[in-house]
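Q: Given only this backbone (246 positions), what sequence would you predict?
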């Protein structure tokens, strides 16, 4: 309403965007003592009535949405009842055509769907999802619990380890294939949780496998007592308690 100044109305009347109605609307929206109401040229109703209606509808959006849902539910139920009253033949025919269309779409889209699936599985997101599902399955099989974690959590975890392998300190990136290692192996009671995941290069991860982390680490040429203690401190563990944190 604040943009409908007398100047704007006068300009609209001159350009033909607005026009005078033959008489006032029922709400009595008279314009400038003319005894008539205004209307958009493209509409039949009163300009100010339409504005008030739009404002009221916007103000009661939630109520209108619920009312519409109820109206739609009743309408759909009446439609289904009518189909049943006709013996159900029309509904059966509709279902048959729907199944045929879906089947035809699956046949025509099979190759593109497989290609999309291949690209997704080869992506970083797809590989992570596959690995997470595999870890969850392995943890459940071993009777261990798991706590869901996201790609954002892993990116944050990557920064915590400064993008370096926690064992040999080699810088790892997506280009030289970094991996996530369960510090306490799942087969040894470790949990599939963010607190039990450490960044490792492929070599260290493949070498460690499901071995005891301390025994494996001190069998490596790069092992030092100082680095081991620093690793335990970073993971919130001690020499006596190396259980994974949730």
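A: Predicted residues:
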């Amino acid at each position: 309403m604040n943009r409908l100044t007398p100047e704007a109305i006068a300009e609209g009347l001159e350009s033909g965007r607005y026009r005078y109605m033959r008489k006032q609307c029922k709400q009595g929206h008279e314009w400038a003592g003319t005894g008539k109401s205004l209307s958009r040229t493209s509409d039949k109703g009163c300009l100010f009535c339409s504005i008030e209606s739009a404002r009221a509808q916007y103000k009661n959006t939630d109520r209108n949405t619920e009312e519409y849902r109820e109206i739609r539910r009743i309408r759909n139920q009446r439609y289904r009842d009518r189909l049943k009253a006709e013996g159900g033949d029309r509904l059966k025919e509709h279902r048959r055509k729907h199944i045929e269309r879906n089947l035809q779409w699956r046949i025509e889209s099979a190759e593109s769907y497989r290609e999309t699936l291949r690209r997704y599985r080869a992506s970083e997101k797809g590989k992570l999802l596959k690995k997470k599902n595999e870890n969850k399955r392995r943890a459940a099989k071993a009777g261990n619990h798991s706590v869901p974690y996201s790609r954002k959590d892993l990116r944050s975890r990557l920064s915590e380890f400064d993008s370096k392998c926690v064992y040999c300190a080699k810088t790892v990136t997506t280009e030289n294939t970094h991996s996530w290692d369960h510090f306490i192996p799942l087969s040894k009671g470790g949990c599939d949780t963010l607190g039990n995941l450490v960044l490792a290069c492929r070599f260290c991860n493949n070498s460690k496998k499901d071995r005891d982390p301390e025994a494996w680490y001190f069998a490596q040429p790069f092992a030092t007592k100082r680095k081991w203690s620093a690793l335990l401190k970073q993971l919130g563990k001690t020499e006596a308690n190396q259980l994974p944190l949730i």
